[in-house]
Amino acid sequence: MKYLFAGALALCLWAVGGMHQAHAFMLTLSESQLNAMVSAVFPQTRVYEDTQFTFSNPAVDLDPLEDEISVNVTVLAERDGLQLKATATLSGELFYHAQLGQLQIKEIGRAHV
User: Fold this and answer.
1) Per-residue pLDDT for 14 more than 60?
2) pLDDT tier, 110 (very low <50, low <70, confident <90, very high otherwise)
């Protein structure tokens, strides 16, 4: 989940990185714009210990006072024909890893299911 935004924002970051200007460039995204971009890369599916996890219905919530971001998702876990559906919330601080070209959530402080 910490690489949640890498796909959605890669295009924006690529565009910003391709600009050659003498002045600094700042890209500002609203919460609704960020939600639209994140929704474009969902659902996400991962397999862990023979269980398939599908993350869908993302909702981004920004806390400007704490510089934190939280993401609420629906999680569907499937194994041997059994299913479990729940909602989960991950929160932490945004970090851009320039060498990998990824926007990550670092120091995930809370994960609620």
Assistant:
1) no
2) low
Indicate if the pLDDT at residue 12 is higher than 80: no
Concatenated DSSP letters of the chain: -TTTTHHHHHHHHHHHHT---SS-------HHHHHHHHHTT--EEEEETTEEEEEEEEEEEEETTTTEEEEEEEEEEEETTEEEEEEEEEEEEEEEETTTTEEEEEEEEEEE-
- CA distances for 12 relative to 2, 33, 36, 85, angstroms: 18, 12, 13, 33
pTM attached to this predicted model: 0.61
Q: Cα separation of 102 and 82, whole Å?
A: 34
Q: What gap in Å lies between CA 44 and CA 40, rounded to an integer?
A: 10
